[in-house]
Amino acid sequence: MDTEGSQSSLSSSTQDSPHDPCKMFIGGLSWQTTQEGLKEYFCKFGEVKECMVMRDPVTKRSRGFGFVTYVDQTGVDKVLAQNRHELDSKTVGTRFGIKR
User: Region entry Disordered: which residue ranges (predicted)?
Assistant: First the structure.
């Protein structure tokens, strides 16, 4: 599975937890949404540690979802406090506490 985005190493203490409370699933992305656009939108809620748009390994076309990981829980809380998120003319959905 191809991803577009940055990768960061995990410390051994965070690898023990099955869920990352700072990692959010972002669904309903436009096929035109890039990693840069996703990060640009979500960085206004807090410092983004990692951001990726999932892509089809053969066509390299966006699969319509991605992940945003914040440095701390504050970013997640700010995203969840806003009821609606629109990116590239599409309303996107969010979930948090994603399994690693």
Answer: 1-21
Contact 2, 56 (CB under 8 A): yes
Does residue 87 contact residue 37 with C-beta atoms inside 8 Å? yes
DSSP secondary structure code for residue 100 in this structure: -
pTM of the model: 0.78
Strands 62-70, 19-27: parallel, antiparallel or unpaired by DSSP?
A: antiparallel
Q: Residue 81: in which H helix or E strand, if any?
A: helix 73-81
Residue 47: is it exposed, middle or buried by C-beta count within 10 angstroms (0-12/13-18/19+)?
Answer: exposed
Per residue in 80-90, pLDDT (tens digit) is 999 999 999 99
